[in-house]
Structures are given as C-alpha cells and as structure tokens.
C-alpha cells in the first residue's frame, strides 16, 4: 500500500529537528558531547528511589487507571511546592502533563487557530516551535511564529513593545523561558518581567512561562517567576521534574487559570488519557518525605561545580578576542559567540568526527537558518568535569583551525 | 483575563464524554459499578513487580530521557511477542505510545484532513471518536465519522461494501476493534476479517485494528488478528499493556508500515518526546523473565470466572422475554438489549442513586444520541463475583420497575 497520498496537510508541518542528527553524531566513540541537554545520571538519587519503589510498588492503585488531571497526592504536594515559590494555585488550576512537551502541545492545540501568531524568544527551545507551527501555521511558508531577541537580561521587552505597537493583532501568547534560558543561558531581569506583564495586560495576550531550569540555580540573586507576580491569570506556567529529579518519569505540570486547565484536561483525555500513575506516585512519595528540597540543594552544588569547570576551561583555552560566552547563574547551558566563524564548521558531522567534540550550532535555535550563525550552545550538565575540560580544549582547537582555514562560505553539515 | 476569545475553533470540538458523569455517579457508596472498564486490581502481579522494581529501579538509564520510538529492550521483547501471534514486524515498524489513546490521536493527526471521513463500528469505543472528530470534522455539525453496524459476528462488512460502492471517496481508514469489541463484546468472524482486507485493497483504505482485549480470551476459538493476515501493509495495529498487565504504566504500541511509524515518531516528538522510560523498563524485564505469558494464562482463568458469574446471574435474574445479552468469549464487557426500555432510565444519575447499580447506556457509544437507546454495556472485569451477582439482581429489578412505569418518553439523566 502506498501511503503517500494519505497523509494530512498538517502532517507535512512536522519535521525532525536537525539537532537530532547532531546528537546522533555526538554518540560516536571518543566524542565528548557538549551538545545534549541531559541531566547527569549520577545525580539520580537511586538509593532514595529504591526505598520509595519498595513502598510505592506495593500499592495497587499505582498500576491502575487514574484521573486525567493527575495523581491526587502528587497534585497536593505540588501545590505546597509552588506555594513556597510564591505561586498560589488551587487544585483546579493544576494539571499533570506527560512532560512539559505535552503542556506546550496542548496549549498550541487549544489556543492557536491557523494564522494566529505566537511570539517566542529568539533564539528559543526548538521543542516548542513544533507544536506552535503544527497548529498555528497558515502554510508551510507562513509559520506564524515571530522571534523577539534576547540579550544578557533576557527577552528584549522594548523590541517586543515596539512590535506590539506596530501590529494590528497582538499574539495569542508570548512564549518565554525567563530563567536560565535555553539556549541563551540568561535570566530575564525583574524589571523586564514586570514590563512583560504590563504589556500582556495592555495588549491582551497571555504569557507562557516555561521554567524547567529555575531550581538549578547557583546564586540567590534570581528574580521570582513571572507567574508569582501575575495577578490576573495571564501567565500559564510550565514546570517539570525532568531536570530537578529525573526525565524518565515524564512527569511535568501546568499551572493555569481554571478555564485553561479544564480545556487542557479535556484535550489530554484525547491525547493519552492520563500521565503514567507509577511515576507520579514515586514523585509524590519523594516529595512527601522531604527528599525533593534536599535533592534540589544537592543539584545546585553538583551542577555549580560543572559550571565552574566549564567557565574555567573556557577562560584557559578560548581566545577572548574571538570567543565571547555567557556566564550562566543556573540551568544547563551556556551560549557562545565566535567572531568570524560559522559555527556549523565546528558542529557538523564531519567536524564532530574530526575534532571529537560536539556542540549545537546557534542556527538550530532560530526560525530561519541564516540567523545565529556565529553562535552555539554548550551544555555542561551531562559531561564529567574532565570531559568539560578536554571538550572545551578541543573546541578551542576546532575554532582556531576552522577560523584559520578562512573559508566559511560553504558549510557542510 | 478573559480567555473566552482565545480558544481555537478546533478546541470547541473537544468535549468530555458523558460516560465520565456516569462513572462519577457510580463511585457513590453502596453502588455496584458495572459501568467502568477497569481491570481488577487484584490481578496486578505485585510480588513479581516488586522483584522487578528491585532490579530495574537500580539502573540509571530508566530515569533518563530515552529515544522517541521506545525503550529498546521492550521493543525487542515486543517483536518476539508479536511474532508468536503471527505478526512479523521489524524494529522500524514498531513504536511505543503513551497508551493506545496516543496511537489513535497520532493517527488522526497524521491521516485526517478536515473533511476526510473515518469509518467506525457502530457502536464503538468513545475514546477513538474524540481525536477523529478533532482532526477530521468539517464543522461542529459535520463530524465526518460514519458508523458501520455490528452484529454477533462483528462489523457487518456487507453494509460496509454497500456503502463503499455508493460513496465517491472511500474513507482514509476503517477503525475496528475486531476481537471482543468495546462495547459489543463480539468477535469479527474470520470470513469478515478477510473480506474487510479485500475491501481495503479494492477501495484503497487503511484498517486501524485496535486490539486491547485480544489476550483476554476464554476459548481458543478466536480468529487471528487482521494484522496477521495483512500482506500489503494496510493494517495499523494497536496493542497495549493496559489490560494484559496494568494500565497505570500507560505503555502501548503501534505496529505499522515504516513510513507511518516514522511519522508517528515525529509527531510524538511534538506530543510528549517519549513514553515514560521507567514503566517500559519494568515491562521489558517482566517479559524477558517470561512472566507475561504466565500472567496472560492467569488472567484468562481469572476473568473467565467473572464472565461465568455474570452470565449465570443474568440467567437467573433477567426476564428472557425482555432482555437479550451477548455471551462474550473474551474481553471485559457484555452488551445487553432491553425490550421496551430506554436504558437511560436505569443508568442516569437518579437511577444509580435509586437502584445502587451503574451501567453505561448504549447511546453513549453511538454518533447520534438517538441510537442504541435500548442497549447498555455491562462490565464484568472490575466488580467482585459477589458484586456481579448482586449487581445483576439489582439491574433486573431496575429494568422491571422502570418498564412497569411505562413512561419512557422523558428521560432524565
């Protein structure tokens, strides 16, 4: 049977990110990968989790169907967790999702008509672009996603304001990762957070605040979430256990006004009925024993050491006249700019094979492939401290070699 | 903030099934629920699962991100499992999904343009209708789903053939639960399976074969899956661990030609990235130790006793001039027909409160609410044997009382 005429128009908007190819290349033996965004498996609290499996695994309810909104004990723990972080929500404003990815997918499905525009930071998390395109795009050429630039203080809200003044229709929502942005590694300042909320009020749009990294902070000097400053239900907040505990459970959560939450729940009935009960029950027990806050403290110290090792290696090996980099206060990534070099030259498959180090080229995080050409994302959560040192050294060498070749016009991936 | 103008047109096609209200009513104390479709939690093999948690829980990889297609050891076990059941597939024709619900959602997204028609059995599984509507409906009024009646031998393929002859465009796919149909409890005969395949070839459509109950059989006299007879990649096969092990892991799988499987994987990247690793690893280990086949044998005996208890009680309490029922050879449900009674009278909230027994009225499983009015679905997997006995007794009483009232014109739910 030939299925080529069977696929929907919509399905043609789906495409696998080329980051996946890079991640494949990075798996080759001998390659140090600074490309991915995985937590270090050494952080998984196996001993405590085994204690919890031993308890939770005996309960019949963890193997049964559950309600779509999420496992009740987990949702109750989450309300307390959020309250401590300045986010007051009720049970009917909280829904457990299968990864934040599902939250993003559901929001795109619920909010975007074809032709509706979503604003995103530029660069941004690639995984968010796919659902936004899938449901919002007018056509293959008109994706209806627009980028607002970021700088060292996060999204440039002045550019946003200027844009809002000019357009006839404001976006349905502005998607932001304000805290330890992916890929930028930066934090949106408190003033900009406030201004974003003011603009949302003035122009009547919603803010989708994606906060996977907020807990992985190396300083107390980080502004509160935008959601915690929201008095009128403008902010839809996405949190996840993927970075603060373990991604393999696929347990995340969305906090939103009741009318949005109800719709997410109905869409989730159609999508997967509910998130796996077992993982939710393990996390609920992990939280109720007080393990999560302890674990977060541990992660902050653990990843701070890696961040320090990375910055130290960059300091040693990078030519400061050529390479500039963000000094992240948290999260998993830094973002580098290489003067006079298309970073595809040091990140394509042949470069990975040659230099034995992998990063993600900046262009991967932009809406058009001719932006961010001098930029790249560097991950420090997954490699060991030794690998960070050697990886940066190799990267510095690759930059030097490719810059000295001087021919950056034709780019091989 | 008022979100009422923010929701997409598409989102208005999403609605919660009224089965959910009945299931809520059925939770009241003292009510025996024959309404749900849950496995009996006493079947969950806790002891074996604890052994497996003790092994699997120590592996770091089960807490980490995994590939979208599914946990490799599980996929390898599944190929062997399917091979034993006459389905030969390769790794690139198999994808793990977050429940079969996700498989259905993904197929609807990938295959249905607005206005494309899907055929379903009539009555059918309500959870399938939501994604089909969401992506295929032309408007709120034109849902583009058409029903093919079933009888004691499953889908009436002669009616299907007649319909196909008349229509200009064949459907994109025909959705069927051929083995122990939900809600009908019937099995599609082997001749009809073959004819369905022939029609699919002749009119060039695909068959979506949903097989959640196939392993729960009480006789060897059950025809092989349609997929196992498919030589040209027409059948997209959905299997799940929800009934043959435990629904709480949300682990299911789709077997389809490579080009479909690839698209499902890309759509899944946008939907939830991957199914929870932990549950997949537990099931893989459960299978590799040979526990699954043992467990399936146990389930067949276990649920056969319940089926027998139900049929026995029906034999004792039902007036055979008034009530007819299917004698299921497997699965979780039987389907009854009550002469001269709208089954809403015995299944609405007030009836549940009065008679202390809950079933799902037939109308819930049809595309329009004026069909199946004399029918109802009765579950026997979840109630205990005593509850089955008492439940049927109460149901017989309810039928007698409501029929004798004679006024079935106004139906209160």
Structure commentary:
Chain A has 2 domains: 10-44 and 294-405, Aspartate Aminotransferase, domain 1, CATH 3.90.1150; 46-289, 3-Layer(aba) Sandwich (Aspartate Aminotransferase, domain 2). Chain A is 39% helix and 14% strand. Chain A has 12 helices and 14 strands. Chain A has helices at residues 19-25, 46-56, 72-84, 99-111, 126-136, 157-166, 190-203, 258-271, 277-288, 291-317, 349-355, 385-405; strands spanning 32-33, 94-97, 118-122, 145-151, 154-155, 173-176, 206-210, 235-240, 252-255, 323-325, 333-338, 357-358, 360-361, 375-379. The relative contact order of chain A is 0.16. In chain A, the strands form 3 sheets. In chain A, strands 2-9-8-7-6-3-4-5 form an 8-stranded mixed β-sheet, with helices on both faces. In chain A, β4 and β5 (154-155) form a beta hairpin. Chain A has 413 residues and is an alpha/beta fold. The radius of gyration of chain A is 21 Å and the shape is globular. The interface between A and B is large, with 80 and 79 residues.
Radius of gyration of chain A: 21 Å
Average pLDDT over all residues of chain A:
95
Which fold name corresponds to the CATH topology of the largest domain in chain A? Aspartate Aminotransferase, domain 2
Counted beta strands of chain A: 14
CATH classification, class level of the largest domain in chain A: Alpha Beta
Helix residue percentage of chain A:
25-40%
- Largest protein interface? A-B, 80 and 79 residues
Helix-strand string of chain A: HEHHEHEHEEHEHEEEHHHEEHEEEH
Low-confidence stretches of chain A: none
């Amino acid at each position: 049977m030939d299925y080529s005429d069977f696929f929907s128009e919509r399905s043609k908007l789906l495409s696998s990110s080329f980051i996946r190819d890079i991640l494949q290349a990075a798996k080759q033996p001998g390659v140090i990968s600074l490309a991915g965004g995985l937590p270090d498996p050494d952080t998984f609290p196996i001993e405590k989790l085994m204690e919890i499996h031993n308890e939770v695994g005996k309960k019949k309810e963890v193997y049964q169907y559950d309600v779509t909104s999420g496992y009740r004990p987990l949702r109750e723990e989450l309300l307390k967790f959020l309250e401590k972080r300045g986010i007051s929500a009720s049970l009917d404003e909280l829904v457990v999702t299968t990864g934040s990815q599902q939250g993003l997918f559901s929001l795109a499905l619920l909010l975007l008509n074809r032709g509706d525009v979503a604003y995103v930071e530029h660069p941004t998390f690639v995984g968010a672009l796919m659902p936004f395109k899938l449901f919002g795009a007018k056509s293959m050429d008109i994706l209806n996603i627009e980028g607002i630039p970021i700088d060292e203080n996060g999204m440039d809200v002045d550019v946003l304001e200027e844009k809002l003044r000019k357009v006839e229709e404001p976006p349905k929502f502005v998607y932001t990762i304000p805290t330890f942005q992916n890929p930028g590694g930066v934090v949106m300042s408190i003033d900009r957070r406030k201004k974003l909320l003011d603009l949302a009020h003035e122009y009547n749009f919603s803010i989708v605040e994606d906060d996977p990294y907020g807990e992985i902070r190396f300083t107390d000097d980080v502004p509160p979430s935008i959601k915690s400053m929201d008095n009128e239900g403008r902010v839809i907040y996405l949190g996840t256990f993927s970075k603060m505990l373990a991604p393999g459970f696929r347990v995340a959560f969305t906090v939103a006004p009741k009318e949005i939450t109800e719709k997410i729940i109905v869409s989730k009935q159609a999508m997967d009925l509910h998130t796996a009960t077992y993982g939710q029950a393990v996390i609920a027990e992990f939280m109720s024993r007080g393990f999560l806050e302890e674990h977060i403290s541990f992660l902050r110290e653990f990843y701070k050491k890696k961040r320090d090792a990375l910055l130290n290696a960059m300091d040693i090996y990078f030519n400061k006249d050529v390479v500039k980099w963000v000094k992240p206060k948290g999260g998993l990534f830094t973002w580098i700019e290489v003067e006079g070099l298309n970073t595809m030259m040091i990140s394509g498959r042949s470069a990975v094979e040659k230099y034995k180090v992998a990063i993600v080229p900046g262009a991967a995080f932009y809406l058009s492939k001719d932006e961010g050409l001098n930029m790249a994302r560097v991950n420090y959560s997954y490699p060991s401290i030794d690998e960070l040192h050697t990886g940066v050294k190799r990267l510095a060498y690759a930059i030097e070699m490719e810059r000295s070749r001087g021919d950056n016009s034709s780019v091989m991936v």
